[in-house]
């Protein structure tokens, strides 16, 4: 089936919000042969919608880069299939119009060229008409706060600035899918924060973003959904929220402003909470929590907080729990 | 496609000109080698000997040799460097497809090298007193020569994609090419008379020497064969390059892995 495509896309136009941008089925990759044979990726199936950020999380060597390159048409899958906006990047080079990618490492750019020249060049390479590429390039540089560095050769920029230029270059053709392989790796804290903010901004424009990382905080801060990969296989895939909730305890910590009266302390203890001064700890059902809150009235509340797992705990738990050869 | 060509020309030019010491040293080396070749040819021929168009023939052969190998090197060495540094994958992300991008690159590289070569040739003609002719018909055998030359460039590019380190291959290749291009095999007798039509570019270089050094007209039958030669080598280069691209994607070796 062929879907008619408009020849010109404007800068922000993205057809049918919520549509599937990336779809992979049973992607597998075997490197080498015989003794060298190594199964790097095993049956990875993922779907990514417009405007969604998916973090591909896993330790080094788990197969993240291999998977992302299979999606970009740079590594041929041994098995399985990739479609980006309905087209297969391995069969139709045209499908690459929908893909922007910043790959691992610091060299996605020509170091002898300036940011503006890189943007001009890659724009044309991605089939954007020359004038339009130039205009968009200037827009992106302005947006990314790189106007002053426009005419400085890339090799003289800081690592963080280089990464921003690389992201700008990946966006020059207004792709629907942005692939980022370890976008914050090797950046100092400040540059890392800057790149994270940028990723959030780009997601808000309605692009689908898939980023790989082995840094849990990056995934937790940026992703709507997390896929955890280990030894080439996805061992968990859920919304970040759900994953965190699932692994969170059900203990609540409450804090009040002022003394509880002895009858209040009695009721609260009856409901299964323990009181220590202004701190109350409760491990009962969520329903009884309201009875507890009622019993505290009218003493002002300072905080009600549920114990919350962070991705580090989830990750460690999952990686420990999974047997060596899970199906 | 025009935009792509323009973009490649601009990129090639900027990368070339941004470091002027490299440019100047490059030109000085070509000049020195050329001059050495002249001097030794004249020395061997002896002062009293009328070297005449024989010398011109050697000059043309050598000029074409530098042209072809510099385009080949541009393609193959840059491919290798870009694989190591990481920009190659960005290039393979182009919806044009790698063969078209590299064809544009080969054109850009040729344009740049042709300009340098013209400068060098004019200077040398001044030094040596050699008088080369530039009739417009020379564009025809030049085209068939370049077709075959591009074919070879794509073969070398394919080697760079598959083997990673191409310096040795390029070295041997340059040596063989020098042999093929500088020697006026079109004057050969015996089996070489016919075999030269099978070797890359040889029928075209013979014609170029006819036109530029010997003051002869274009022999159309020979030209048809030269064109066929060019087309066959070009097609072969493209085919092998596509195979190499598929192999590199199979091995996951477009990056420096
Ligand atoms: N081109 C290749 N040839 C052979 N093995 C490879 C190649 N690329 C990656 N690998 C291996 O595959 C595994 C997964 O690598 P990779 O996808 O880079 O993981 P990650 O990005 O999660 O760190 C690693 O063990 C790595 O050594
Ligand atoms: Mg990786």
Order of helices and strands of chain B: HHHHHHHHHH
- Given the C-alpha coordinates, what overall shape of chain B results? globular
- Structurally, the number of domains of chain A stands at 2
The whole-angstrom Rg of chain B is 19 Å
Question: Count of helices of chain B?
Answer: 10
Query: Which CATH class of the largest domain in chain A applies here?
Result: Alpha Beta
Principal-axes shape call of chain A: elongated
Sheet-strand content of chain B, in percent, reads under 5%
- Succession of helices and strands of chain A: EEEHEEHHHEHEHEEHEHEEHEH
Whole-number radius of gyration of chain A?
A: 24 Å
Oligomer state of the chains in this structure: heterodimer
Give the tally of structural domains of chain B. 1
Bound molecules: adenosine-5'-diphosphate, magnesium ion
Q: Largest inter-chain interface?
A: A-B, 38 and 30 residues
- Share in helix of chain A: 25-40%
- CATH topology-level name of the largest domain in chain A: Rossmann fold
The average pLDDT score of chain B comes to: 83
Q: What gap, in angstroms, lies between the N and C termini of chain B?
A: 31 Å
Q: What does the model show?
A:
The complex is a heterodimer of chains A (327) and B (257). Chain A is of the alpha/beta class and 327 residues long. Chain A folds into two domains: 20-245, 3-Layer(aba) Sandwich (Rossmann fold); 249-306, ACT-like. Chain A, domain 2 (Alpha-Beta Plaits). Chain A is built from ten helices and 13 strands. Chain A has helices at residues 64-71, 115-125, 130-143, 159-171, 189-204, 216-222, 240-246, 262-270, 286-296, 311-321, and strands spanning 20-31, 38-49, 53-57, 79-84, 99-102, 177-181, 208-213, 225-230, 233-239, 252-256, 273-276, 279-282, 301-306. In chain A, strands 5-6-7-3-8-9 form a six-stranded mixed β-sheet, sandwiched between helices. Chain A has a four-stranded antiparallel β-sheet with strand order 11-12-10-13. In chain A, a hairpin with a 6-residue loop joins strand 1 and strand 2. The two termini of chain A are 34 Å apart. Chain B has 257 residues and is mainly α. Chain B has one domain. Chain B has helices at residues 2-17, 20-45, 52-85, 87-92, 98-128, 139-163, 167-182, 192-195, 202-212, 220-251. The two termini of chain B are 31 Å apart. The interface between A and B is medium-sized, with 38 and 30 residues.
């Amino acid at each position: 089936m062929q879907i008619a495509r408009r020849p010109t896309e404007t800068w922000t136009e993205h057809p049918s919000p919520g549509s599937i941008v990336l779809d992979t089925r049973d992607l597998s990759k075997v490197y080498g042969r015989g003794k060298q044979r190594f199964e790097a990726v095993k049956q990875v199936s993922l779907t990514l919608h417009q405007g969604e950020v998916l973090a591909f999380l896993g330790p080094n060597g788990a197969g993240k880069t291999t998977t992302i390159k299979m999606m970009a048409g740079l590594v041929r899958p041994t098995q399985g299939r990739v479609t980006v906006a309905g087209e297969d990047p391995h069969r139709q080079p045209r499908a690459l119009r929908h893909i922007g990618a910043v790959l691992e490492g610091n060299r996605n750019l020509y170091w002898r060229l300036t940011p503006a020249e890189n943007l001009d060049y890659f724009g044309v390479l991605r089939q954007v008409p020359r004038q339009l590429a130039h205009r968009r390039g200037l827009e992106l540089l302005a947006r990314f706060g790189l106007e002053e560095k426009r005419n400085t050769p890339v090799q003289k920029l800081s690592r963080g600035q280089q990464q921003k230029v690389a992201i700008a270059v990946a966006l020059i053709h207004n792709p629907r899918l942005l692939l980022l392989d370890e976008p914050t790796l090797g950046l100092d804290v400040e540059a890392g924060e800057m790149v994270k903010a940028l990723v959030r901004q780009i997601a808000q424009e309605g692009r689908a973003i898939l980023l790989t990382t082995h840094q849990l905080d990056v995934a937790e801060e940026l992703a709507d959904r997390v896929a955890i990969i280990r030894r080439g296989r996805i061992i968990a895939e859920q919304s970040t929220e759900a994953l965190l909730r699932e692994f969170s305890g059900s203990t609540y910590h409450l804090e009040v402003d002022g003394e509880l009266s002895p009858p209040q302390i009695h009721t609260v203890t009856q409901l299964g909470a323990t009181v220590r001064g202004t701190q109350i700890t409760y491990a009962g059902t969520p329903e009884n929590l309201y009875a507890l809150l009622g019993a505290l009235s009218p003493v002002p509340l300072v905080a009600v907080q549920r114990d919350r797992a962070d991705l580090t705990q989830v990750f460690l738990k999952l990686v420990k729990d999974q047997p060596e050869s899970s199906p | 496609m025009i935009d792509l060509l323009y973009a490649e020309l601009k990129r090639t030019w900027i990368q070339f000109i941004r470091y002027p010491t490299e440019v100047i040293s490059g030109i000085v080396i070509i000049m020195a080698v050329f001059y050495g070749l002249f001097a030794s040819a004249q020395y061997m021929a002896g002062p009293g000997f009328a070297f005449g168009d024989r010398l011109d023939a050697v000059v043309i052969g050598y000029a074409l040799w530098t042209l072809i190998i510099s385009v080949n090197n541009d393609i193959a060495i840059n491919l290798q460097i870009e694989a190591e540094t990481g920009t190659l994958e960005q290039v393979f992300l182009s919806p044009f497809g790698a063969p078209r991008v590299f064809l544009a690159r080969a054109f850009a590289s040729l344009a740049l090298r042709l300009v340098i070569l013209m400068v060098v040739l004019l200077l040398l003609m001044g030094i040596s007193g050699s008088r080369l002719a530039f009739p417009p018909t020379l564009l025809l055998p030049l085209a068939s020569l370049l077709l075959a030359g591009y074919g070879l460039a794509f073969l070398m590019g394919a080697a760079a994609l598959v083997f990673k380190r191409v310096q040795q291959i390029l070295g041997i290749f340059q040596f063989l090419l020098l042999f093929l291009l500088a020697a006026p095999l079109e004057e050969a007798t015996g089996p070489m008379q016919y075999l030269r039509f099978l070797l890359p570019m040889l029928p075209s270089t013979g014609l170029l020497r006819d036109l530029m050094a010997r003051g002869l007209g274009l022999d159309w039958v020979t030209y048809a064969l030269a064109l066929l030669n060019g087309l066959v080598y070009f097609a072969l280069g493209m085919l092998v390059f596509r195979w190499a691209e598929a192999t590199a994607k199979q091995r996951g070796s477009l990056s420096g892995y």
